[in-house]
Amino acid sequence: MAQLKAGILGAFLILGVGACGTATNAMDDGVPKVAEDMTLPSGEMIGDIVMPAGSAMDAKDSIILGNGANAFGKIIAQVKAKQIKVMQFYKENMPTQGWGLISEIQDDDILLTFQKPTRVAVIQIERGRATDLTITVTPRN
Q1: Residue of 138 and 68 predicted with greater confidence
Q2: Helices marked H in 1-141 — which ranges?
Q3: What angle do CA 94, 98, 102 make, to 5 degrees?
Q4: Cα-flanking dihedrals φ and ψ of residue 130, to 5°?
Q5: Which controlled-vocabulary keywords does the entry list (predicted)?
């Protein structure tokens, strides 16, 4: 009986070690994983809002009043990039134009709110085949 228990215990240990080795190999095959590049190149400037390269502005539905640092209105565009990359693009590039991030909401859509002393910019990033983008810039009271 003692020999049977020792044999069963030995079998479980061999199976357990084998299973651990298999699980480890499945999770870590020794090949380093390449991190996905999260950067998008900068494209044109609309007022003092930088757009991702390759973005397509909808000129029919967008309205921009004023110019440069005094521009306000609504920009509607599409970007052929993942929603998360577009979010990261604006979080990195808006501060270089003097905008400060004051609010961030992430759900199905992403809302980023930035401010300057005289204006507020709300960037809505929607998920889809291409990422839909709505940027609304308003004067600050």
Answers
A1: 138
A2: 2-27, 83-93
A3: 65
A4: -115, 160
A5: Signal
Distances (CA, A) of 91 to 15, 22, 95, 96, 109: 50, 41, 7, 10, 15
DSSP 8-state assignment for residue 117: S
Query: Residue 100 forms beta bridges with which residues?
Result: 115
- In the three-class reduction of DSSP (H, G, I as helix; E, B as strand; rest coil), residue 8 is classed as helix
Q: Contact 56/106 with Cβ under 8 angstroms?
A: no
Q: Which amino acid would we find at residue 79?
A: V
Nearest to residue 49, comparing CAs of 103, 127, 140, 114? 114
Are the C-beta atoms of 116 and 99 separated by less than 8 Å?
yes
Tokens of 128: 């889809």
- pLDDT band (50, 70, 90) for residue 14: very low
Element (H, E) at 103: strand 100-106
Decide if 137 contacts 119 (C-beta within 8 A).
yes
Per residue in 69-102, pLDDT tens? 788 999 999 999 999 999 999 999 999 999 999 9
